[in-house]
Amino acid sequence: MHQGQELDLFHERGSTRLWIGPGAFDRSRADLGSWLKGRRVFVVTSAPVRRLHGRRLTAALEGAVSLVWLEVADGEDGKSLAAVEQVTREMIEAGGKRDSRLVTFGGGSVGDVGGFVASCFLRGIEYAHVPTTLLAQVDASIGGKTGVNLPQAKNSIGAFHQPRFVVSDSGVLSTLPREQIRQGLFEVVKAAILADAKLFALIEQRLAELLEGEREALSAAVEAAVAVKVAIVAADEREGDRRRLLNLGHTLGHALETTVGHGLLAHGDAVGHGMLFAVELARRRRLADQDADRMRSLVERMEPVALPELDREKVLEAMGRDKKARESGLSWVLPIRLGAAEVVDGLDPRDVEPLLASYLTGSVESA
Amino acid sequence: MHQGQELDLFHERGSTRLWIGPGAFDRSRADLGSWLKGRRVFVVTSAPVRRLHGRRLTAALEGAVSLVWLEVADGEDGKSLAAVEQVTREMIEAGGKRDSRLVTFGGGSVGDVGGFVASCFLRGIEYAHVPTTLLAQVDASIGGKTGVNLPQAKNSIGAFHQPRFVVSDSGVLSTLPREQIRQGLFEVVKAAILADAKLFALIEQRLAELLEGEREALSAAVEAAVAVKVAIVAADEREGDRRRLLNLGHTLGHALETTVGHGLLAHGDAVGHGMLFAVELARRRRLADQDADRMRSLVERMEPVALPELDREKVLEAMGRDKKARESGLSWVLPIRLGAAEVVDGLDPRDVEPLLASYLTGSVESA
Question: Does the annotation mark A149 as catalytic?
Fold first, then answer.
């Protein structure tokens, strides 16, 4: 049985301590207790998460003077400036101060909006992430990216604000429906392709168990994926070339989410399509057929949802508007082999467009 | 004739270059030009400032590919999350990217909201302040504090985000009405009390000319006040004890603004009252009567507007809600002598309340 894992992520303003896996709530109790002691604590969460796991969190945060629960809508709908305004107003009303604490408790969107509130409330207060979905445990909770959406573009308002603590307990994953695990696994596969061939092999071998939420397999996968992300973020906090590796599958993925419509295409599925497309792009450069086949085969076994018919021009336009785009043009993350990838800037759009056209019409396999 | 001044403020992520005084636009042109070259540039401004000085800015920013003008309401009304949403939407629509540039052009409130937009647009882009009021030149443009208001509390949503450049040209001050100069001079006096007895003497001697906007006196005062603030911020970017010195007059000042109503009591007048009150508090500790008299006399010569009748309980409550307040209680900045002050935490409220009561009823002189 896995005993779980502790990691420290060092960044420009200090460090983040992460507890991962079984018993993370228990293992973090002493450190969280002294961090919270005598403080007002604001918990940003969603109603379903509070209902399912609220008691566990209350037990874990027993050191706080008072917990103020603040609920936002689940999913991308909750990530709005209106939610930021509502939450910060309630914090002011409840006497929030600069040395108050904030805890996000939920999936990635709750973490994103809660983290952004922590970054801008009275110009920044300390906070912790307690992620309750697989996707949030392996991705959103690590690295200090916070933000909300504008109708025109996801995550277009935000900040880099590192949490002081991350508590990713396996226990809260047990209530996840299979579909949410499947969505989260796309980011685990991304981590494996980028930097951990052993993790990739584990997913290949135990995909069925993982999708069923088998606890030991899932803990092992989460710990490995977290370690990949921590290593990349620690090397490069603010999206130089190292951190941009984490955008594997996201250049196209974000554009697909925008074009299909937020909430209509899940993030994991979008990244799944983005990775399949990146593998094809990479194959045309320097990715060996054998590794490309393994990558494509695994992503396909995870069954990314079929895309509706999409206007290629709109997808291209959405890529241009994506926040990753610089004046200098789009950048792509392309696998080199299992466990290694590179960031490529300034690909000729004429090379990308035809492949995109055939991908969107589903004929990429014969391309 | 003053030749103007250049200063560099070093902070944790790099440095800010400031050009102050006569000819600042001309002196900054080359550096701004290379910073803007080939970029999309967003100018956050207000309609009156654009009308009065827009051409000068266009000339100063000649290196930009395209200028996109974004207008917000002048004054505290413009400092809202609604304005942030409107400006960022327009930036997305106009193709704003991570390496686009933002320039704030106006008074302190335009700088605050524009700087906050720069801090959170795509998680942060580079920006410059071009302040056009005395208050903004000597205070708001220096130090990287940005933010907007909630109805319940000023500056309660914001970020520390240092500008890359500050261009404080004397020329734009020539259109300022006397009243705006008077408001700005309260912050100049604050700088003098904190750290520059020579500047204090200059204001004592030339107050009438300063209020009339006499160019040479005003340039000298601006340069000295900017130097005080730069030195304090460079020593301590994020409100440790050094930077908290800048709150002289603001513990009570902010509370007065909140209680009277934003827009109904000007910031300078509020800080004027806050300084008079701090001088009285300080006199009861260790400030010599002679320096206290000089401070009070100068602030009174600047004629802070009379306060309406105020409920002392409401003022106390507003002080508790001020963002400077920590769970541990209020802190006060108290002058020790001309050119030196200290931060005092945890003053007994029983010592402060009676003095506040007599100050608010106008009987402080006999206290």
Answer: no
Burial class of residue B11, CB neighbours in 10 A (0-12, 13-18, 19+): middle
Instruction: State how far the Cα of B358 lies from the Cα of B361, in Å rounded to an integer.
Output: 5
Q: In degrees rounded to 5, what are phi and psi of residue B332?
A: -125, 145
Of A91, A75, A170, nearest to A131 by C-alpha is A170
Considering the entire predicted model, what is its pTM? Answer: 0.91
**What is the rounded average pLDDT of the residues A85-98?**
95
Question: What is the C-alpha separation between A217 and A220, in angstroms, rounded?
Answer: 5
Active-site residue, A145 included: yes
ipTM, interface predicted TM-score of the complex: 0.89
Name the active-site residue from A71, A101, A164, A247.
Answer: A247
SS3 A81: helix
Position B328 scores a pLDDT of 56
A265 backbone dihedrals φ, ψ, rounded to 5°? -125, 120
Interchain contact, B120 vs A158, CB within 8 Å:
yes
User: How confident is residue A218, by pLDDT bands cut at 50, 70 and 90?
Assistant: very high
For range B311-333, the mean pLDDT: 75
Q: Is B145 a catalytic residue?
A: yes
Q: Compute the distance between CA of residue B250 and CA of residue B333 in angstroms, rounded to an integer.
A: 9
- Residues in chain B whose beta carbon is closer than 8 A to a beta carbon of chain A? 12, 38-40, 81, 84-85, 88-89, 92-93, 95, 97-100, 116, 119-124, 145, 147, 150-153, 155-160, 320-321, 323-328
Averaged confidence pLDDT in chain A: 91
